[in-house]
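# nightly structure sweep
# worker-07 picked up a monomer target from the shared queue
# config: single-sequence mode, recycle default, output format = structure tokens
# input follows
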Amino acid sequence: MTTETGKIRIRMESYDHRSLDASAKEIVEHARRTNAKVSGPIPLPTRIERYTVLRRPHVDKKSREQFEMRTHKRLIDIYEANARTVEVLNRLVVPAGVFVKIKA
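# output follows
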């Protein structure tokens, strides 16, 4: 008899969308192997931060350069998770640069 722990929500963020998608795919595969129902990965809106910098501070005041940082986000919901699912998720290793928040 398995004890159901309810719903687990995993929110992932990264600057690199390829490593984020690979990590999300790996989490979904591990969760499905433990017979849990998985919803996702759901892409959330990408946060874009833009910065404008003067190229040369004295002579060319109108010459500026723009940089941007994109933060990609994914959401995965796992339903009917058992103790084995939680154990597998805790042992999972994600690449550097991928931030994972798990809410049970």
